[in-house]
Amino acid sequence: MTASLKPLVVITGASSGIGAAMAQHFADAGHALLLIARRLDRIEALGLENAMCRSVDVTDIAALRAAVTEAEAAYGPVDLLINNAGLMQLGQLDTQDPTEWQNMFDVNVLALLNATQVVLGGMKARGAGTILNVSSIAGKKSFPNHAAYVGTKFAVSSISENLREEVSGDGVRVMTICPGAVETELLGHTTDQEIIDGYEAWKEDMGGVLVADDIARTALFMYTQPQNVNIRDVVIAATRQP
Ligand code: NDP
Fold it and tell me: CA–CA separation, 169 vs 35, rounded Å?
């Protein structure tokens, strides 16, 4: 490991949007990185130094474990896991394809548990470490056509709070960041064009939304507090978002 390199940060969903911006900010801060997503070309195209890029589907716990083991052998123990990978497929429950809510729960919830399990034992043994879960304002309140997505994000927030209580005595911090609307590729997975159009109009009415850098900057601020300081939960949205 390079002497001046800061501890290993694992970011899931680093190939676009918020995860890619976080990768850039943590690389700029001098951290070793393990960047995970399915689209390897997109994470490699970030061109970051000391960044191991691996094509991993976060629903595959064995593949996650293998990637983390490889990165720890190169860079030392994981000090921060950012569970950022996520999927939003808005829809109405009477008409939505059930595979869409299956996918969202698999990626947004079960895969977050997978990645957490992979790193948690090491953090507890070391008595230090941070898990930052990307929830959403949709983990705090409901929105039209969001029933399944909101369900996943309420789950992220409640799992995080429960885990925080469980591991606080081990010196491990668990944090959530809950963004409002951010301009990324997230809406692109929704298949209902009417819902997409409505969402875009809502963003336009607000005069625009946040950019991924806003979230990444905040995540770095949360992480870089002293280890005995845990910013448990941050809600961040465009000023004009109601
Ligand atoms: P993007 O669609 O731009 O990014 C989603 C990321 O998740 C991609 O890197 C994608 O990589 C990855 N991902 C999805 N499925 C998998 C999978 N099975 N295995 C590995 N990686 C996967 O959206 P955002 O940047 O907006 O989303 C990031 C997080 O922020 C999500 O959890 C989202 O719910 C949350 N969020 C976003 C908000 C917004 O308005 N944009 C608001 C609030 C929260 P790949 O496809 O290459 O695998």
Answer: 29
Q: Which CATH architecture has domain 6-228?
A: 3-Layer(aba) Sandwich (3.40)
Q: Residue 2: what pLDDT? A: 52
Token pair recorded at residue 145: 């056509």
Ligand 1 centroid–CA 200 distance in Å is: 18
The tokens describing 207, both together, are 């005069």
157 lines ligand 1 (CB under 6 A): no
Percentage of residues of the chain with pLDDT beyond 70: 99
pLDDT higher than 70, residue 11: yes
For residue 176, the cross-strand partners are: 133, 233
User: Which one from 75, 149, 199, 223 is the annotated catalytic residue?
Assistant: 149
pLDDT at 124: 98
Mean pLDDT of 190-201: 97
Asked if residue 120 has pLDDT above 80, the reply is yes
Q: What amino acid occupies position 66? A: A
The finding on whether 84 has its CB within 6 A of some atom of ligand 1 is yes
Predicted local confidence at residue 146, as pLDDT: 96
Q: pTM for the whole thing? A: 0.98
Determine the residue type at 238.
A
Is 149 among the residues known to form the active site? Answer: yes
> Which of the listed residues 87, 196, 214 should we mutate to test ligand 1's pocket, taking the one with most ligand atoms within 8 A of CB?
87
- Say yes or no: CB of residue 181 within 6 Å of ligand 1: yes
**Residue ranges covered by each domain of the chain:** 6-228
Q: Which atom of ligand 1 is nearest to the CA of 210?
A: 40
Residue whose C-alpha is closest to residue 58's, from 88, 78, 38:
38
φ, ψ at 184 (rounded to 5°): -145, -165
